[in-house]
Amino acid sequence: MAIHTCEALRACSPPLFTSIKLAPNCIRNCKFSVRNCLKNPNNSRKLVLKVKEKLEKEHYSLPVGKNGRDDEDMILWYLKDRRFSVEEAVAKLTKAIRWRQEFGVSDLSEDAVKSMAETGKAYVHDFLDVNDRPVLIVVASKHFPAVHDQHEDEKLCVFLIEKALSKLPAGKEQILGIFDLRGFGTKNADLSFLTFLVKFCSMETVRKEYFTEATIPVNFRD
């Protein structure tokens, strides 16, 4: 799958973690601000409305509705990601919503990605992992960058991430991505794909740490 598009999607969806370097006093102030917002729903609500108002005033042409400029759940998600900075949340939301609109994320469907999905190179597992996270599995040995159409790969990548996100239980904000490198060869090599990987582990680790006997994906049982 074309990972540079997945990176774009990560830019439009809050990352699983963020890192930032600040002076010690800034760190203390930042932590207090975030804790204050998380503990006081009224503060969070005020910031959500402030971001919503700025988006309407400064970026009126952006679409509305789910994943649009007035989606309060998404606004809150971005506020948390940006440590409740209104300006940073607005900037990232604007970029995200425009990207989704240009790529046509809302137009993607099972039929739209059917031909690429049938290669078996990636799919969303039927069960959650032991931490109640939706699971996206990528089978690297079935990825052929020299043969498969790049744009079709991109559509599949985006569609499956959206599908996994739609399976998030209430209160959960993470999905698990597993990249199966068994049988991986030079014909499957994709540098941008490899740089996207963040953790290598054995099949035994996948079985023990992420699933139960009842929920382990079939191709990880042997």
UniProtKB/TrEMBL annotation:
Transmembrane segments: none annotated. Residues 118-200 form the CRAL-TRIO domain. CDD domains: SEC14. PANTHER family: SEC14P-LIKE PHOSPHATIDYLINOSITOL TRANSFER FAMILY PROTEIN. It comes from Theobroma cacao (Cacao). Pfam families: CRAL_TRIO. This is Sec14p-like phosphatidylinositol transfer family protein isoform 2. InterPro entries: CRAL-TRIO_dom, CRAL-TRIO_dom_sf, CRAL/TRIO_N_dom_sf.
